[in-house]
Amino acid sequence: MLLRCMSNYYVLLNGIRCFSSKQCIVYTTSVTDPFYNLAFEEWMFRKVDFTKTNCLFIWRSQPSVVIGRHQNPWKECRVNDTISDEINLCRRSSGGGAVYHDLGNLNFTFFNEKSEYNTKRNLKLITRGLRETWPFLDVDVNRRDDIILNKRYKISGTAARLGRRSCYHHCTLLVSTNKSNLTKYLHPNKLNLTSIATDSVRSTVRNLSDEDNTINCKNVSNAVTQVYVRQFSGAKYYEIDTKSEQLLTGVTEIAKELLQWEWVYGKTPKFTYEFDYYHEKSEQTFPITLEVKEGIVSNITVQ
Amino acid sequence: MHRVNRLSRRLFRLSAVAQTRATCAVNKDVLLVKHHPKLAAKHTQHVRWLNTTCVRTGLVQFKLADIGEGIKEAEMLEWFVEEGEKVSQFQDICEVQSDKSTAKITSRYDGVIMKRYYDIGENAQVGTTLVDIEVEGEEDGTEAKQDETPDVPTTIEPPTPTQTPETQGVLATPAVRRLAKEHGLDLNDIKGSGKDGRVVKEDIMEFIDQPEATMTSSSPTMMPSIPTVMLQDKTEKLKGIRKAMVRSMKASLDIPHFGYDDEYDMSELVLLRKKIKKEVKHNTGVKLSYMPFIMKATSAALAQYPILNSQLDGGHENIIYKADHNIGVAVDTPHGLLLPSVKSVQNLSIIEIAVELNRLHEAGLNNKLTQQDVVGGTFSLSNIGSIGGTYARPVIFPPQVAIGALGKIQILPRYNYDGDITKSHIMCVSWSADHRVIEGATMARFSNLLKDYLENPSKLLLYLK
C-alpha cells in the first residue's frame, strides 16, 4: 500500500515509512571507549544537519555502566566496585535509566531532524531486522519502548535527546552480554537514599545468543543495517574513528567533559543519605543524615 | 472592552496552533479585530495584528511546546536561568525529561525572565506556561523573526572519513585526573599504559618516582592498531632482522630437534618475588620479574650439565664446552625477533642480571642493540608466556644446542605433599635440544634440577657464588 504524505515526504512501504527523497549514512567504529563514542553522538547532535541525510551509528563498549542524565550513580550501581574493577562509569546526555555495556552489547543511535523523532519506528525497525534474519525470534516492542524477547525478557533499553533542530535516539541490544556482570554492576544500592533522580526500572534480561548461539554482534548489526537503509533512496557506509580530532573537530573536548568528575558525579540531583554510625568506644549508634548537593556533602546532621 | 475580551478569547481558541506551538501572549488590553469595523474604529490607536507567531514586546508567556510522540507532560529537571535574569534568543532556559527523552528548551526572545512556573521535579503539562519573559523590542508591530540569526552556530554535513584516521587524546578517569592535579602534573607529559592509551594511576606513580619509564624483561605490550583490510597483494623486500631470521632458521633445519616438556611449580618463587621486588625497584629502579631468577637457576643447573652449554664445531668433529653461561633471551621488538644475551650469568647476582636484562630490553625496543649484545650466546630462553601460551616448540638458535620456552604462569589446583589440593602457580616449560649432542635423559635430568631450584629457591642459595 502506497501512501504519499507530501508535507513529510514519507512513503509507506511494507509497513515501514520510507524517506524516499533522503539519503542515509551508517557509521560503525572499532573504538570501544564509551566516552569517545558518547562524545561522538553529542558532536553529531550539536553540529550536524540532518535535513537531507539521516544517520545510524552502531557501536560497542568495553565493560561500562552508563547512567542517564539525571540519575544518581550511587543509587544505580556500586560505584566502588566499578572503580576497583576498572569498569567505566559514564553519564550520558540523554535521559532514561542505567544500562551495562560490554562487547556483547550492541548500541544503535538514530540521528534525525526533530520533526522525525519517533522511537517506536526505530525500535520496530530493529525487531523487523531481527525477524527477517531469524524468523523464529519472538521479539516485540512494548509501550515503554523496550524490546521484549519471548514476551518476558527485556533485551533493549532506550533513551533520547531532543534539541532545537535535531534529535537522537539510542538503544542497547543484549546479544551476548555477560549477564552475571550486568547483575553485579547494575545492582541498585540498597542504601537509604532519598532523591528526585530518575530511577531505573529493573527487568529480567536475556541474550539473543541464548536463543540461537549463531547470533552475534556482527550479524545483528548487518541485519539491522539492511532494514534501515531500505527506507532511503541512497546509503553510504563509513568506518569512523570517533577519536579523530582531525575529522571531528571538538570531539576530544566533549570526551574530556564527559570524563570530568563534575559531570559524572557532580551532575547528580541533590539527595539525602541516612545511615547508622556505630561508635566503638562509647558503644553507641548514631543516626546520621548526609545532604549531598552536586556530588559534594553540603550538610551533615547527627541525631 | 468587555466585548473585546470575549471576542479575543474566541479568536484565541480558534487559533489552535497557539495552544501548542505559539509562544505569544495576547495583550489582553488591546487587540485588533481586523474585520470588526465597530471595534476597529474604537481602538485604532492601539491597533496591533494578532498572529500565531510572536508579539515582540511586553510580557510573553513561553509555553512548553509539543515534544512529539503524543507526550502530554514532562518532568522539570534543571533550570538554567533565574527570575530577574536576562536571557537572549536561543539561550538554554531549562531541561525537561519525558520518560526516556531529555529535551533542552531554548528561548525565542531576548528579554528578562519574570517568573518560573515549575520547580525541579514537578511535571509540566504540554501547552502550559513554563516562564514569563518580559520581551525587549520596538512597539511597531513587526512580526518576530523566525529565521536564524548569525549568532546561531551553523550546522554542517555528516562527516565522511576518507583516510586512515589518527588516534588522539590523552584521557584519564576522574580519580586519576585528581591525583595528577594534586601533584601538579600535566597528563600530556605522562605516557598512558591503560586501555586505549589511557593514563592510569600506576603511570602517575612511576612518573613521580622516576622520570624515565622502566620495563620488565618480558615482552612489551603492543598497542592494538585499527585493523585495515588489504585490498590487494603486497610485496615487501626482506631486509635487516627478517633476512637474518630467514638465514638462521634455515640453518636450524639441519639440527635434529627433540622436545621435552614439564611443569614447574613456581609458588615459592612467586612469594619470594613479592617480598623483595619493592627493594629492587627502590635500589635500582628496575622492575623485578621472574626471568633473573630463572636465568640464575639455569646457570646453576648448567654448571652440573655443561654439555647443554656446548657447541658443535664447524666440521662436526668436536664438541666445544663453553665456560661462560651467556644466556640469550628472546625479545619481540617492532623490528622483529632478537636474541641478545646476558654475558657470564654464572658471575652475576640476581639483581645484576635484572639490571642487564632491562638494559637489553630497552635497547632492543629502541633498536640500539650492539653487535656485542647479540653475538656470543651459549644457551637461550624464550619467555613466550609473557604474551601467552603454555607449551611451545622452540627452534634452536645455531650454534647452540638447546633452547627453552617458558609458558605463562597459571594458577591451577595441585595436590601438595599432604594430599590436599592447593592453589599452585604452574609454569609450563618446553625444551628443544640437538639430538646429535644431547640425549633425552640428560635433558630430563637438567630439567629436573632446574625445577628443583625454582620450586625450592632456598636451595639455589647453596650454589650461588
UniProtKB/TrEMBL annotation, chain A:
Pathway: Protein modification; protein lipoylation via exogenous pathway; protein N(6)-(lipoyl)lysine from lipoate: step 2/2
Annotated transmembrane regions: none
GO biological process: protein lipoylation
Gene3D superfamilies: Bira Bifunctional Protein, Domain 2, CO dehydrogenase flavoprotein, C-terminal domain
Family (UniProt): Belongs to the LplA family.
Name used for this protein in its record: BPL/LPL catalytic domain-containing protein
Highest taxon in the source lineage: Eukaryota
Domain BPL/LPL catalytic: 50-236
NCBIfam families: lipoyltrans
One annotated GO molecular function: lipoyltransferase activity
Cross-referenced Pfam families: LplA-B_cat
GO cellular component: cytoplasm; mitochondrion
TrEMBL record, chain B:
Needed co-factor(s): (R)-lipoate
Subcellular location: Mitochondrion matrix
GO cellular component: branched-chain alpha-ketoacid dehydrogenase complex; cytosol; mitochondrial matrix; mitochondrion
PROSITE patterns: BIOTINYL_LIPOYL, LIPOYL, PSBD
Domain Peripheral subunit-binding (PSBD): 171-208
Sorted UniProt keywords: Acyltransferase, Lipoyl, Mitochondrion, Transferase, Transit peptide
Domain spans labelled Lipoyl-binding: 59-134
Chain residue ranges for the region called Disordered: 137-168
InterPro entries: 2-oxoA_DH_lipoyl-BS (IPR003016), 2-oxoacid_DH_actylTfrase (IPR001078), 2-oxoacid_DH_E2_comp (IPR050743), Biotin_lipoyl (IPR000089), CAT-like_dom_sf (IPR023213), E3-bd_dom_sf (IPR036625), PSBD (IPR004167), Single_hybrid_motif (IPR011053)
A Gene Ontology molecular function term of the record: dihydrolipoamide branched chain acyltransferase activity
Catalytic activity: N(6)-[(R)-dihydrolipoyl]-L-lysyl-[protein] + 2-methylpropanoyl-CoA = N(6)-[(R)-S(8)-2-methylpropanoyldihydrolipoyl]-L-lysyl-[protein] + CoA
Pfam families: 2-oxoacid_dh (PF00198), Biotin_lipoyl (PF00364), E3_binding (PF02817)
Predominant location category: mitochondrion
EC annotation from Swiss-Prot or TrEMBL: 2.3.1.-
PANTHER family, A to Z: DIHYDROLIPOAMIDE ACETYLTRANSFERASE COMPONENT OF PYRUVATE DEHYDROGENASE COMPLEX (PTHR43178), LIPOAMIDE ACYLTRANSFERASE COMPONENT OF BRANCHED-CHAIN ALPHA-KETO ACID DEHYDROGENASE COMPLEX, MITOCHONDRIAL (PTHR43178:SF5)
Homology family: Belongs to the 2-oxoacid dehydrogenase family.
Record-given protein name: Dihydrolipoamide acetyltransferase component of pyruvate dehydrogenase complex
Native source species: Ciona intestinalis (Transparent sea squirt)
